[in-house]
Amino acid sequence: MSEILALKWSDFDFENGTVLVQRGVVHGRISGVKTEYSQDDLPIHPKFAALLLEWQNECLETEEGWVFPNPLTGKPYHAETIQQDYLRPAGKELGLNQSLGWHTARHTYRSLLDDSGAPMGVQQKLMRHAQISTTMDVYGSAYSEAKRAANGVVVDRFLPQKDNSQQLSA
Question: N or C: which end of the chain has fewer CB within 10 A?
Answer without folding.
Answer: C
